Amino acid sequence: MEITEVRVSVRNEERLKAYVTVTFDNCFVVRHIRIVQTEKGLLVSMPSRKLPDGTHKDIAHPISQEFRKVMETKVLQAYEEEQKRAPASRPPRPEAAGSPSPAK
How many CB atoms sit inside 10 A of residue 46's CB? Predict the structure, then answer.
C-alpha cells in the first residue's frame, strides 16, 4: 500500500497542531488524523470515536508497527513542509486587516 497524498490543515491551538488527510493508492482516504503536541514532542493521533464509558477507540489505524512508522514519518514531514509554507500563505489576522488608517 502506497501513501499517495498527505494534506495538512494547520491549526494554531496549544495542543492541536494540525488535522491531516491521508490518501492511499489514490483510492482510499482517511480524514481527521491529528497532530498533537505532547510533553515528548509531536504525536500522530488516529481518528477515534468516544465510547459511552468515556474512553476513545480508533476508527482507522495501521495494523503493523512498520507501516505505522512509515505513515507517521510521511505525515510529520508533510506537517513540517506546511509549517515552512504557512506564514506566507496565511491571510492577515482580522484585527490587522480591519485596522483604521491613521488620520492625516
Answer: 16
